[in-house]
Write a structure and sequence with these properties.
alpha/beta; Metallo-beta-lactamase, Chain A; 2 domains; seven-stranded mixed β-sheet; 15 helices; 34% helix; 23% strand
Length: 469
């Protein structure tokens, strides 16, 4: 048996692990590369192995860096099924169609604005995938429940556990039988930070022969939730009440937007700020929020109580969802008093770019970064202190205050990752550290060896097959 990491090795996007065993081959995740000039090339070259040998795909959760190449996989000839939790299947019904629509529109825009003949020839190959191809891929999704045993292929049995990252996110326990012996491979997926709003904490796992663990924040600790609430309340008070500007929050449509809504509501309920006028400007986020309410059984108790309070106090916590383009454009005429939550979370696509264009050059406004910003993205450039950015071909000065609120991250920090690892009754034979920039993955690997004395801890390298002993 061997594993090969076709993405999310030395970086945080493009998650895709291929497992080859005596009974066949399968993938864990099939994610999109995001951020930077090389992303399009990497996405087009990502699935360069023999797809006819892939029997099935297991999906840890719905974020596009784990699922965004699902339609392309099907378009290139994959004939098998995708297994994911019921909530993930529901989310993908929204996300993959939205992603395909963006792929089509951005390909059209790029072709129209290509400046050289060489660039135009490259763009004539069309979008990465189309809406029709995305719709076809949805027919291959197979929903499973947390805790149920699933046999997706010969010699493979798996179980999905709650990862506490986003709605439906999973840690997957995979038992693989070879030569009369079963070995357990555990894929952590993206692990949530414990004690955060909306979802339950990640499930503890007792046993693994082989482990793949994410390391997005493997080299740091998040600020406490209490400190984060204090910081966010002060940003809102100063920007909205003192300076009279708007607060712009780039947020992933899945998971982060819903968490931010609940955090903002809690600030009002707790009296840290008198009232808020919150606008969610993302059609996909609106649909995902509806799905989140539908899957209320996955919430923690505190979130259920907060939701009931918000339903009764709409005069203090005003929440609106913007759907059409005209409504979205009207928001840019409002000079102050709004909290605008919009996608994408890394500022590289979607309506958030328009809100940045109209607010980032104004000193009275604030931009709150509440999620991870991958290298090469517009969000990362803002976090790193860029004084000017390019938006729709226009150079825009950055005068608004840029705040990074790490305590709201949906990813576990190093202490939380180590806490989760303490749940194992004995060390895995091999541990692969994935889904992190090089420094973060190396730091987590060192911490695992230092804290637990585990042997066989490896920072995964891309496209290098690893034999599982």
């Amino acid at each position: 048996m061997k594993v090969t990491f076709h993405g999310a090795a030395g970086e945080v996007t493009g998650s895709c692990m291929r497992v080859d065993h005596a009974g066949g081959s399968f993938l864990v995740d099939c994610g999109l590369f995001q951020g930077g000039r090389e992303a399009d090339r990497k996405n087009r070259e990502a699935l360069d192995f023999d797809l006819s040998k892939i029997d099935f795909v297991l999906l840890t959760h719905a974020h596009l860096d784990h699922t965004g190449l699902v339609p392309r996989l099907v378009a290139l000839g994959f004939k098998g099924r995708f297994f994911a939790t019921a909530a993930t299947v529901d989310l993908l019904g929204v996300m993959l169609l939205d992603s395909a629509y963006i792929q089509e529109k951005e390909a059209e825009w790029a072709l129209r604005n290509a400046r050289t003949r060489k660039a135009r020839r490259r763009l004539e190959q069309g979008p990465l995938y189309t809406v029709e191809q995305a719709r076809a891929s949805l027919k291959r999704l197979h929903a499973v429940d947390y805790g149920d045993a699933v046999v997706p292929g010969t010699g493979v049995r798996c179980c999905f556990r709650d990862a506490g990252h986003i709605l439906g996110s999973s840690i997957i326990e995979i038992d693989i039988e070879e030569n009369g012996h079963a070995r357990r491979l555990v894929a952590s997926g993206d692990l949530g930070q414990p004690m955060r709003p909306v979802l339950e904490d990640p499930t503890s796992i007792a046993r693994a022969d082989y482990l793949c663990i994410e390391s997005t924040y493997g080299n740091r600790a998040h600020r406490s939730l209490e400190g984060t609430f204090d910081e966010l309340a002060e940003i809102l008070r100063r920007t909205l009440q003192v300076d009279g500007g708007n607060v712009i929050i780039p947020a992933f449509a899945v998971g982060r937007t819903q968490e931010i809504i609940f955090v903002l509501a809690e600030l009002v309920r707790a009296g840290r700020i008198d009232r808020l006028d919150v606008v969610v400007d993302s059609p996909m986020a609106s649909k995902v929020t509806e799905l989140t309410v539908r899957h209320e059984n996955l919430w923690d108790d505190e979130t259920r109580a907060l939701y009931a309070w918000a339903q009764r106090n709409t005069e203090r916590f005003r929440l609106r969802f913007v759907q059409d383009v005209e409504e979205s454009m009207e928001l840019n005429k409002v000079r102050g008093g709004l909290v605008i939550v919009s996608a994408s979370g890394m500022c590289d696509a979607g309506r958030i770019k328009h809100h940045l264009l109209h607010n980032i050059g104004r000193r009275e406004c604030s931009v709150v970064m509440a999620g991870f910003q991958a290298a090469g993205t517009l969000g990362r450039r803002l976090v790193d202190g860029a004084r000017q950015v390019s938006l729709f071909g226009e150079r825009v000065p950055v005068r608004a205050r840029i705040h990074t609120i790490g305590g709201l991250s949906a990813h576990a920090d190093q202490p939380a990752l180590l806490h989760w690892l303490r749940g194992f009754e004995r060390p895995p034979r091999q541990t692969f550290v994935v889904h992190g920039e090089a420094s973060a993955s190396a730091a987590l690997a060192e911490a695992i060896e230092r804290e637990f004395g585990w042997q066989g801890v490896t920072v995964a390298a891309p496209h290098s097959p690893y034999a599982l002993e």
